[in-house]
C-alpha cells in the first residue's frame, strides 16, 4: 500500500483525523479524545495491522501551551509506517494510555511521564522510570530549572 | 478524572505471601545495580517464592545522563559523539542513524564509496558485538573460557577500527555527508585476511560451547516468547527474530549498501533462549558474508561530500531515521523548528530500552538460575536503556 492510499484509508475510517504536514513519512493528527479509538482501528484493521509501537514520545511547545504526543507505528504484517500525533494542553496534560493495545507502551509512557510530565489515563503502573520517585519537575520540559543546571553561554 | 501516580516504594511494600502450605513467605531480592549479570548498572528487583521467580521489576536509571536534553543544545554533528555513549557496542551504527536522518532531511547526497565503507564498518562492529556477547553469555552461565575467547576476537576487530578511526570504543566515525576519516590503504587487505580467521572463530564457538550439554539444558525451552507477543512488547533485533519474526531493517528497508548484497535474515522457530543464542551465531556468519561481498570492490571517490564546518539546518518538521544495530532498531526522531542548526527536540528510540521489558513476561515461573539465562540472552547494554 502506498502512503497516499494508507492515509485515505485511515481518513475513511476516522473522518476526524487530519493529515499532518511537515513529516518525512505518512503522518496523521488525531484529537486526544479519539486517540484510543483511532489506535484500536490502526492495530486491528485487516489492511493495516500496526502491531509494533516503535516509539512514543512527547514534544513540549510552551509558547503554544501544548504537548505534542508522537507515536511511531510499524506493521510487521504489511510493512507500513505511520506517525500519529496528538495534542494535549500543557496546563492539563492528560492523554489516554495505549498500553492496553501495545504492552510496550506501558514503559514508553512511563518514560514520557518521567521526563515530560504527561499523565496517562488508565495506565496500569504509572510511575517514574529513570529518576527517583521524589524528583521535582520534569527535565525535558523547556522551562525546567534546577540548581544543578549550568547557564548556557549566550 | 484523576491519574494515579505510583512509586517504587508502594510496589516493594505490598504484602508478600507464598502459595505453599508451609509457613513460608515470598521475598524480594535486588539483582543490581551492581551485579555480574547486569553488565552495567541495571537494578532488577525479583519477587521470589523459594527459588521460583514470581515477578520481575526492572528499575533502570542508574546511568541516566539526560542525553536527549543535552542534544537540544548541540548541533547535528555534535550529537554524533553522544550516540557513541548509548549502545557503546554499536557505536558506528548509532552514528549512522543520526547521519542518515540528517542526510535524508537536509537532502545531502553521499556516494557509493561512503556507503560501502559504512556498511563494512557496521558489519565489523556487529561481529565484534556478537563475539563479545557470546563470550559474556558463556561467562554468565559459568563458562569463563568463552569470555576470554570472545574478548580475543573483540580485540582483533578493535585493532582494525583503531587503525582507521583512532578509537576502539567511542568511534565518532560516520558523519552527516560522509566519514570522519578515509580508510587506510591496507584496510581492505587486512579485513580480507581477517575474514577466514573469523569464520574459524565461529566454528570454534560452536565446538566450544554450543554442543555443551549443561549449556544447552540451561538455554533450551527457557524463557519462551512467541512472535506476536515479542512484537507487542516492542522487541526488535535478534530477540524478535529468534521468535520467528523476520524483522530486520537491513532487509525490509535497505540502506547503505545492504540493497546490493545477498544475505539471509536469520529467524528462530521456538523463541527460547537457545534460539536467541543461535540467531546471533548465524548472524555472525551472515555478517562475514556481507563483508566478503563488499570488500573487493570498494569504489573510488571522496570520503565526504560536504565540508564539515558548514552549518546544517533541517527543514521544519519531524524527521525519523533508523538503522539495525546489533541489538535491534535504533531510531532517531528529530523535531526541527527550521530556524536553528540545533534540534528543537531529539528522541532516541533505543533497542535496549524496548527489549528490556520482555523480561517481565519471560521470567515469571522460572527459577532464579533461568532468569540469568533469560537476561543474558537479551544482550542488554545499560547506557542505551537509560540514555
The Cα radius of gyration of chain B reads 22 Å
Give the structural class of chain A.
alpha/beta
Helix content of chain A: 10-25%
Work out the number of β strands of chain B.
8
Largest sheet of chain A: 5 strands, mixed
Low-confidence stretches of chain A: none
Q: From the structure provided, what is the oligomeric state, counting identical versus distinct chains? A: heterodimer
Number of helical segments of chain B?
Answer: 16
The share of residues in extended strands of chain B comes to: 5-15%
Which stretches of chain B are poorly predicted, pLDDT < 50 over at least 5 residues? none
Residue fraction in strands of chain A: 25-35%
CATH topology of chain B: Cytochrome-c3 Hydrogenase, chain B
> What is the overall number of helices of chain A?
3
Shape of chain B: globular
Mean pLDDT of chain A: 85
Mind sketching the topology for me?
The complex is a heterodimer of chains A (154) and B (387).
Chain A (H helix, E strand, L loop, with lengths): L2 H11 L4 E2 L7 E5 L3 H10 L7 E10 L4 E10 L4 E10 L4 E3 L8 H12 L2 E3 L33
Parallel strand pairs in A: 2-5, 6-7
Antiparallel strand pairs in A: 1-2, 3-4, 4-5
Chain B lengths: L7 H5 L14 E5 L11 E7 L2 E8 L7 H5 L4 H9 L6 H16 L5 H29 L3 H22 L8 E2 L2 E2 L7 H24 L2 H7 L7 H6 L5 H5 L6 H4 L20 H23 L21 E9 L2 E9 L8 E5 L1 H6 L2 H4 L5 H11 L3 H5 L1
Antiparallel strand pairs in B: 1-2, 2-3, 4-5, 6-7, 7-8
Helix pairs in contact in B: 3-4, 4-5, 5-6, 5-12, 6-7, 7-12, 12-15
